[in-house]
Write a structure and sequence with these properties.
- The structure holds two protein chains of two kinds.
- Chain A is 52% helix and 11% strand.
- Chain A is of the alpha/beta class.
- Chain A folds into two domains: 201 residues, Spore Coat Polysaccharide Biosynthesis Protein SpsA, Chain A, CATH 3.90.550; 245 residues, CDP-alcohol phosphotransferase transmembrane (TM) domain (Four Helix Bundle (Hemerythrin (Met), subunit A), Up-down Bundle).
- In chain A, α12 runs antiparallel to α13.
- Chain A is elongated.
- Chain B is mostly helical.
- Chain B has one domain: CDP-alcohol phosphotransferase transmembrane (TM) domain (Four Helix Bundle (Hemerythrin (Met), subunit A)).
- Chain B is globular and about 55 Å long.
- The chains are: A alpha/beta, B mainly alpha.
- At the A-B interface, β14, α13, α14, α15 and α20 of A face α1, α5, α6 and α10 of B.
Chain lengths: 542, 239
Amino acid sequence: MTRVVLLGSSPSPIDSDTQPVSPARVRLSSFVTAPTVTARLYGQAAALDPEPVTIVRPAEAGAYRQYPGRVVETTDLAGDLRALADAIEDTTDSVLILPTASVIHDELIYQITKTKRGALALIAKEPRPEAESAENGDNGEGMEVADTGESLIPEPPIEEAEPEIGDRTLEGLPVRMRAGRSRVISVGSAYHAVTRPNAVALGPLYITAKNAPVLAEAARELADLTHLLGPEDDIVQLLVLCLVRRGVSVGIRGRRDLYYRRILTQADAEEAQQIMAGIDEDRARLNNAVKGADGFFTTFFVSTYSRFIARWAARRGLTPNQVTLISIALGLAAAASFATGTREGSVAGAVLIYFAFVFDCVDGQLARYARKFGVLGAWLDATFDRFKEYVVFAGLAIGATVAGQGDVWTLALVALALQSVRHLLDFAYGAGHRRRRRKSVPLPTLDLTISPDTPLREALVQRKAETTTGVRRLLKAWSRAGRFRPVHWARKMIVFPIGERFAAIAITAAFFEPRITFLTLVIWGSVAAVYTLTGRLVRSLA
Amino acid sequence: MITQPQTTPVPAPDPDEERLRIQTARLVSYRDDGPLATLLRDRLGPGLPPVFTTLVALAAVIALGVTGTLDPGTGPIMLVPSLIVVALVVPTIARDHLGRFDWLVPPLVRAAEFVTILFVALATDTPKWLTFVLIYVIGYHTYDTVYRTRQSIWPPAWVFQAGLGWECRLLIIGAGAAIGRLTIVMAVLTAYLAVLFAVESVTSWVRLDKSSTTAQASDDLEAAPEEAVERASAEADKA
């Protein structure tokens, strides 16, 4: 479950003199039933929390009382912060905070609440100057280093930049946040200065139950300091400020292929509807069902179209487990074809094993797309992937014997043993390498009463220096080299992931004899074992 | 039944200690120790360092294998590789497996088991397809353990005992080869293990209270750890 908190107060617009209209009076006429912004948002919130808490000004409270949940009336920002603290401080669920003026895709809410991070803010970054963004794609120059946020942006270096109270705006919000590559580095307000701000928090903020008391406590403290803040300061940005200053790592994400906007006027609503009409939410959901970080073969020769099979299967009402069964049947048919020992059989087997692999990808994508996850389904999928692969080994070995190409069972045995041990190496490393009695170095904290974020940055620099010594420096350089695409894909191929294995079996079996297939599997597998083992041993030293 | 995640309800365990305890439990379950190892666990004092000792055992078996010492005519010598592995690796069970390189232990133990079985079986005229099936069945049990524990569902302790563990399996194979009856011994062992693991898996899944466990969208049981890390950082990079 997730606790939903809706925030009614919006900051005073600073880049125009438009007077915000209550979202309860803005209609989304192009949507089915033409709901108001508020009605739509409550409908969306109900899927997460049947009793959302809404914090609004007394004048507007009436419009919210018709919906389920609790309405808290507050008269100022300090009241908002305290009411929010009350709403979340003893929750055992994660918390999703949204402005009441939000127009947001269901899928975006889903993706935000499924994050693995302890805190996540939806942000928009200021567009960078052209020269900078041009080089972003290919090399690491000018990029920010992942988790420390040390900026490498060239001239003038950020180390020499002074903290500032940002006066630029983006989407009607003051640009007073510094976002790094993966998380928020620093946040400001009319009082809190930020070194080189580059982003705004759009509105949605997600935190896990563990961070809720931290946020509540900091929000209460900030409530006593609101005389320092300005009318343009947005409460969500202030909440992120609270989290960051308390040393919570707040992850960031953009809208990507989905839409979010705060609606201030009916004109905003018309524009939002027009943009949303041009976005295929179902397609975004489908794309999100394809898991990232797959191997080269899977990414370019399977995932490019397997998602459409997954969508088709979902529309036909097929369950992921049924797709797994199709995949098993194809795998068995492939093994039987290989066992004939004929050229035709080998080619047919190659095609069948390819499609067995395609359907193996489809079942997972279908489960994520249709949101039908089960422990049994996950287990069946994984277990029978192994079964398919090894039954094909047996089919090939039988085929070689039938065709009189000699006894390749020994090679089959070696390939089987090697692959099993290699998998166990993955699993055991995953289970064992994270230990460390030495705890990870926490992010620095900074008191809310201090204006400039310089101490925070200095602490981050020091933290980086402490955590990147010797081997770690090597590992950092190694992961940076991975931003170069050919290096990235070469590294993914060398570990011989499942897609490459199935492709290697299909291609070598179709064109050569099983002996070549097993030799390929054993040699490539050995290279992969040495490669991954080396990397992991080094990481264990770090 | 496989419902109980092996978390004994101790009042408010320290999360760090708890994490380490689960880590030990994971690695030990991946090793797949059987009744003999369990029996001797508390009687062997502090035990031997697992990574080094297992490496020595593996090297010794490979040395025996490649020098052609294993010969079906010689009888008792066929039991030697199994005895070496058992004698060296069983005393490592007492350790907590929290050392810097101790994640190497389960794959090393499995490699030692497989290499021993391969050398012994290939030195005799045991059908290779039978050996293939045996290796698959043992591998299935390991995969099964991993894929369940990765979803916090722990197989019952008795499966590991009934599955004989790597040490008893090795002794049975070695003894079978020593008396010159490896084919029949391996056939019976394979059939027994196949039926045991298959029946246990089916009954466990049938009986499992599915509502007591929740699967996650992000669960990928097969993912290598590096992939999981990459996925997590890709989530941020796309922002």
